[in-house]
Amino acid sequence: MDAARKPGRFEWFFYIIFVPMLFAVLLSGVILQFLGFNIISKTTTVLRHSPVVKDMLPAESQSQSLQSSLQTKEQQNADLSAQLQKAKADQQTTQASLSALSAQNDSLQSQLNQLQQQLTQKQSDAAAVAAQVKVLTQMDAGKAAAVIGALSDAEAGKFLSAMKSDQEAAILQQMDPARAAQLLTGSSH
Protein backbone atom coordinates (compact mmCIF):
# COMPACT_ATOMS: atom_id res chain seq x y z
CA MET A 1 0.00 0.00 0.00
CA ASP A 2 1.29 3.33 -1.03
CA ALA A 3 -0.66 5.43 1.46
CA ALA A 4 2.39 7.25 2.79
CA ARG A 5 4.27 7.84 -0.42
CA LYS A 6 6.68 10.75 -0.55
CA PRO A 7 5.86 13.66 -2.89
CA GLY A 8 8.15 14.25 -5.80
CA ARG A 9 10.26 17.38 -6.22
CA PHE A 10 7.83 18.90 -8.70
CA GLU A 11 4.84 18.32 -6.44
CA TRP A 12 6.72 19.74 -3.47
CA PHE A 13 7.73 22.85 -5.48
CA PHE A 14 4.21 23.33 -6.86
CA TYR A 15 2.32 22.98 -3.55
CA ILE A 16 4.84 24.50 -1.15
CA ILE A 17 6.43 27.29 -3.22
CA PHE A 18 4.45 28.15 -6.39
CA VAL A 19 0.81 28.12 -5.15
CA PRO A 20 1.47 30.25 -1.99
CA MET A 21 3.61 32.67 -4.01
CA LEU A 22 0.89 33.02 -6.67
CA PHE A 23 -1.70 33.59 -3.95
CA ALA A 24 0.46 36.25 -2.28
CA VAL A 25 1.03 38.08 -5.59
CA LEU A 26 -2.65 38.07 -6.49
CA LEU A 27 -3.70 39.17 -3.01
CA SER A 28 -1.13 42.00 -3.07
CA GLY A 29 -2.37 43.14 -6.49
CA VAL A 30 -5.99 43.21 -5.32
CA ILE A 31 -5.07 45.16 -2.17
CA LEU A 32 -3.00 47.68 -4.15
CA GLN A 33 -5.80 48.05 -6.69
CA PHE A 34 -8.23 48.90 -3.87
CA LEU A 35 -5.74 51.40 -2.48
CA GLY A 36 -5.79 53.30 -5.78
CA PHE A 37 -2.71 51.97 -7.59
CA ASN A 38 -3.28 51.10 -11.23
CA ILE A 39 -1.67 47.67 -11.10
CA ILE A 40 -3.09 46.46 -14.40
CA SER A 41 -1.60 49.24 -16.52
CA LYS A 42 1.75 49.02 -14.72
CA THR A 43 1.80 45.26 -15.16
CA THR A 44 1.02 45.50 -18.87
CA THR A 45 3.74 48.13 -19.29
CA VAL A 46 6.31 45.85 -17.64
CA LEU A 47 5.11 42.83 -19.63
CA ARG A 48 5.32 44.81 -22.90
CA HIS A 49 9.05 45.23 -22.29
CA SER A 50 9.72 41.54 -21.64
CA PRO A 51 10.78 39.79 -24.86
CA VAL A 52 8.58 36.69 -24.71
CA VAL A 53 5.34 38.24 -23.46
CA LYS A 54 5.39 41.38 -25.64
CA ASP A 55 4.54 39.29 -28.72
CA MET A 56 1.47 37.88 -26.97
CA LEU A 57 0.04 41.26 -25.86
CA PRO A 58 -1.65 43.59 -28.34
CA ALA A 59 0.23 46.70 -29.38
CA GLU A 60 -0.28 49.82 -27.26
CA SER A 61 -1.86 51.79 -30.10
CA GLN A 62 -4.26 48.93 -30.73
CA SER A 63 -5.11 48.90 -27.03
CA GLN A 64 -5.71 52.65 -27.07
CA SER A 65 -7.95 52.38 -30.14
CA LEU A 66 -9.90 49.59 -28.45
CA GLN A 67 -10.19 51.75 -25.33
CA SER A 68 -11.37 54.69 -27.43
CA SER A 69 -13.84 52.47 -29.25
CA LEU A 70 -15.10 51.17 -25.91
CA GLN A 71 -15.61 54.71 -24.62
CA THR A 72 -17.46 55.66 -27.79
CA LYS A 73 -19.72 52.63 -27.46
CA GLU A 74 -20.37 53.43 -23.79
CA GLN A 75 -21.28 57.01 -24.74
CA GLN A 76 -23.61 55.76 -27.45
CA ASN A 77 -25.14 53.35 -24.96
CA ALA A 78 -25.69 56.20 -22.48
CA ASP A 79 -27.25 58.36 -25.22
CA LEU A 80 -29.55 55.54 -26.29
CA SER A 81 -30.54 54.93 -22.67
CA ALA A 82 -31.42 58.61 -22.29
CA GLN A 83 -33.43 58.53 -25.51
CA LEU A 84 -35.21 55.40 -24.30
CA GLN A 85 -36.12 57.09 -21.00
CA LYS A 86 -37.38 60.15 -22.88
CA ALA A 87 -39.42 57.95 -25.22
CA LYS A 88 -40.94 56.14 -22.25
CA ALA A 89 -41.85 59.46 -20.64
CA ASP A 90 -43.35 60.68 -23.92
CA GLN A 91 -45.30 57.43 -24.21
CA GLN A 92 -46.71 57.88 -20.71
CA THR A 93 -47.67 61.48 -21.48
CA THR A 94 -49.32 60.41 -24.72
CA GLN A 95 -51.12 57.59 -22.93
CA ALA A 96 -52.43 60.02 -20.31
CA SER A 97 -53.58 62.42 -23.04
CA LEU A 98 -55.23 59.57 -24.89
CA SER A 99 -57.07 58.51 -21.73
CA ALA A 100 -58.25 62.07 -21.12
CA LEU A 101 -59.40 62.41 -24.72
CA SER A 102 -61.18 59.08 -24.51
CA ALA A 103 -63.03 60.19 -21.38
CA GLN A 104 -63.92 63.49 -23.05
CA ASN A 105 -65.12 61.61 -26.13
CA ASP A 106 -67.33 59.38 -23.96
CA SER A 107 -68.80 62.45 -22.26
CA LEU A 108 -69.46 64.17 -25.58
CA GLN A 109 -70.99 60.99 -26.99
CA SER A 110 -73.33 60.81 -24.00
CA GLN A 111 -74.34 64.45 -24.49
CA LEU A 112 -74.91 63.81 -28.19
CA ASN A 113 -77.15 60.84 -27.39
CA GLN A 114 -79.17 62.96 -24.94
CA LEU A 115 -79.54 65.75 -27.50
CA GLN A 116 -80.62 63.27 -30.16
CA GLN A 117 -83.25 61.88 -27.78
CA GLN A 118 -84.47 65.41 -27.05
CA LEU A 119 -84.59 66.20 -30.76
CA THR A 120 -86.52 63.02 -31.47
CA GLN A 121 -88.95 63.86 -28.67
CA LYS A 122 -89.43 67.42 -29.96
CA GLN A 123 -89.92 66.16 -33.50
CA SER A 124 -92.55 63.69 -32.37
CA ASP A 125 -94.22 66.41 -30.28
CA ALA A 126 -94.15 68.76 -33.28
CA ALA A 127 -95.63 66.05 -35.49
CA ALA A 128 -98.38 65.44 -32.94
CA VAL A 129 -99.10 69.19 -32.70
CA ALA A 130 -99.14 69.47 -36.51
CA ALA A 131 -101.63 66.60 -36.72
CA GLN A 132 -103.83 68.18 -34.05
CA VAL A 133 -103.57 71.60 -35.71
CA LYS A 134 -104.64 70.02 -38.99
CA VAL A 135 -107.72 68.58 -37.27
CA LEU A 136 -108.49 71.94 -35.62
CA THR A 137 -108.14 73.85 -38.91
CA GLN A 138 -110.48 71.43 -40.66
CA MET A 139 -113.13 72.02 -37.98
CA ASP A 140 -115.57 74.88 -38.01
CA ALA A 141 -113.93 78.01 -36.48
CA GLY A 142 -116.58 78.21 -33.70
CA LYS A 143 -116.09 74.59 -32.62
CA ALA A 144 -112.28 74.92 -32.84
CA ALA A 145 -112.54 78.07 -30.67
CA ALA A 146 -114.51 76.10 -28.05
CA VAL A 147 -111.90 73.32 -28.04
CA ILE A 148 -108.96 75.73 -27.80
CA GLY A 149 -110.76 77.75 -25.13
CA ALA A 150 -110.91 74.63 -22.94
CA LEU A 151 -107.13 74.08 -23.16
CA SER A 152 -104.49 75.61 -20.87
CA ASP A 153 -102.83 78.83 -22.02
CA ALA A 154 -99.58 77.02 -22.90
CA GLU A 155 -101.32 74.32 -24.97
CA ALA A 156 -103.64 76.80 -26.67
CA GLY A 157 -100.70 79.07 -27.49
CA LYS A 158 -98.81 76.10 -28.92
CA PHE A 159 -101.71 75.21 -31.25
CA LEU A 160 -102.40 78.80 -32.28
CA SER A 161 -98.72 79.52 -33.06
CA ALA A 162 -98.64 76.48 -35.34
CA MET A 163 -101.58 77.71 -37.41
CA LYS A 164 -101.54 80.11 -40.31
CA SER A 165 -102.43 83.69 -39.40
CA ASP A 166 -105.81 83.69 -41.14
CA GLN A 167 -106.84 80.39 -39.48
CA GLU A 168 -105.69 81.72 -36.10
CA ALA A 169 -107.65 84.94 -36.63
CA ALA A 170 -110.83 83.05 -37.55
CA ILE A 171 -110.63 80.94 -34.36
CA LEU A 172 -109.76 83.90 -32.09
CA GLN A 173 -112.76 85.84 -33.57
CA GLN A 174 -115.08 83.11 -32.31
CA MET A 175 -113.63 83.14 -28.75
CA ASP A 176 -114.45 85.33 -25.76
CA PRO A 177 -112.51 88.61 -26.26
CA ALA A 178 -110.82 88.45 -22.84
CA ARG A 179 -109.63 84.88 -23.40
CA ALA A 180 -108.56 85.73 -26.97
CA ALA A 181 -106.53 88.69 -25.69
CA GLN A 182 -104.94 86.47 -23.04
CA LEU A 183 -103.98 83.90 -25.67
CA LEU A 184 -102.69 86.55 -28.09
CA THR A 185 -100.22 87.92 -25.53
CA GLY A 186 -98.88 84.37 -25.02
CA SER A 187 -98.99 83.52 -28.75
CA SER A 188 -95.96 84.03 -31.00
CA HIS A 189 -97.95 85.85 -33.74
Give the mean pLDDT.
85
So how many helices? 7
Describe the largest sheet.
none
Order of helices and strands: HHHHHHH
Strand content: under 5%
Give the class from helix and strand content and strand pairing. Answer: mainly alpha
- Terminal CA distance reads 135 Å
Structure notes:
This protein is an all-alpha fold. Helices cover 82% and strands 0% of the residues. It has helices at 9-34, 39-49, 60-138, 141-150, 153-162, 165-173, 177-186. The longest helix has 79 residues, at 60-138. The protein is rod-shaped. The chain starts with 8 loop residues before the first helix and ends with a helix. The model has no long low-confidence stretch (mean pLDDT 85).
In a few lines, what is going on in this structure?
The protein has 189 residues and is mostly helical.
List the helices and strands and how they pair.
Layout: H1 9-34, H2 39-49, H3 60-138, H4 141-150, H5 153-162, H6 165-173, H7 177-186
Characteristics:
189 residues, mainly alpha, 7 helices
